[in-house]
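hey so u asked for the seq, here:
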Amino acid sequence: MKKSVLITGATGGIGNSICDVLKDEYDLYLLGRQESKLIESSKRNPSVKKFFICDLSNSKEIRSTIDKISNENINIDILINNAGITDDGLFIRMSEEKWEKVINTNLNSNFLLTNLLSKSMIRQKWGRIINITSIVGHSGNIGQSNYSASKAGIIGMSKSVALELAKRNITVNCISPGFIDTNMTNVLTESQKELIKSKIPMGIIGKPDDVANCVYFLVSDKASYITGETIHINGGMMML
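ran it, structure tokens below
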């Protein structure tokens, strides 16, 4: 029997790649905000059993979505918290609204989904939780104090949750991408991209598959003795 995977941010560049690498071995459930993209992903990938429309900045919608999953007797074995947004601005000018929007979507949703879905994992004494963070959660970045804080918070939370769930055969790990070729980096100019590449020892910007392949490993039994860790995928840009 295939294990079930819930993937947030499933229609973005990294989300699509995660679906592609998992589709042959897992049943996929997608969570996102844009119905049209979720329908497109479902048509493209026959392993997608169902999708759920949910605004991750809204805790009521998250709870309602998890209730729907439970009421339909869908048991989620693996949670991949991939969704994330940016809303950049210099810290001195950052509004409380911008701060809360990013923290709610990136960090608070991660807490709530993990909190709600880990309960069934505890009962079955098996589970995998993968949290996609970011290099800036370690380094910080000008204009991204809200985004950096949200990603750093996920890393700290993951370590604590990993400690609490380890004896239940549930692993909790983070993947921290550097610069990956997605919609977030597509807004950069060519000169900005060249500057970034000059700071990456490998001299290239990563691909979504680089992250997805790491997800594939961490959810497998081959990674059963790895928990509380952050794997950095950044071409050597930051070595920790």
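The radius of gyration is 17 Å. Strands lie at 3-8, 26-32, 48-53, 78-81, 127-132, 170-177, 230-233.
lmk if thats what u needed
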